[in-house]
Amino acid sequence: MKTMLFPHGFQKWGWCIFAVGVISGIYALVTDYGTGSLVNNIAIIGTVSGAILATCSKEKVEDEMVRQVRLNSLLVALYVNYAVLIICSLFIYDLDFLSVMVYNMFTILLIFMVVFRYRMWCLNKEAKDEE
């Protein structure tokens, strides 16, 4: 089965771009930089594109187990993301909800990154223990 993953080498670039995007976002948030500024664009584009490159790149060994972990992690991220969105829609209103929606652009990718990396770490640890 053909997968639509990036080559493994893109993963390092993804982490670098993601780091620049997150740092830019924190800077824009802390300094209260204006909406639509270059810093905001760098933060949004960098965070999203970096996260996609980092998570959607092949592992060194891309086998059926890794594919299963990737799929399960994506489903967990999807469920958690929309559960949080539903809860927020019940308790947060007006312009505050707009902030929730802005952060919601990133949460599915971030949850996926955390869950996938954690499960891969557990899988690698389990493989080392068996040796």
What does this structure look like?
The chain is an all-alpha fold and 131 residues long. The protein folds into 2 domains: 1-58; 59-131. Helix content is 79%, strand content 0%. The longest helix is centred in the last third of the chain and has 37 residues, at 94-130. The chain is globular, with a radius of gyration of 17 Å.
Q: What is the secondary structure topology, with strand pairs?
A:
Layout: H1 10-30, H2 38-55, H3 64-91, H4 94-130
Summarize the structure.
The protein is mainly α and 131 residues long. The chain has helices spanning 10-30, 38-55, 64-91, 94-130.
What is the number of domains?
Answer: 2
- The helix tally amounts to 4
Structural class: mainly alpha
- What share of residues are in beta strands? under 5%
Mean pLDDT: 91
**Low-confidence residue ranges:** none
Question: CA-to-CA gap between the ends?
Answer: 30 Å
The helix fraction, in percent, is over 70%
Q: Using only CA atoms, what is the Rg?
A: 17 Å
Total strand segments: 0
What string, H for helix and E for strand, traces the elements in order?
HHHH
Biggest sheet overview: none
Shape: globular
Throw out a few tags for this protein.
mainly alpha; globular; 0% strand; 131 residues
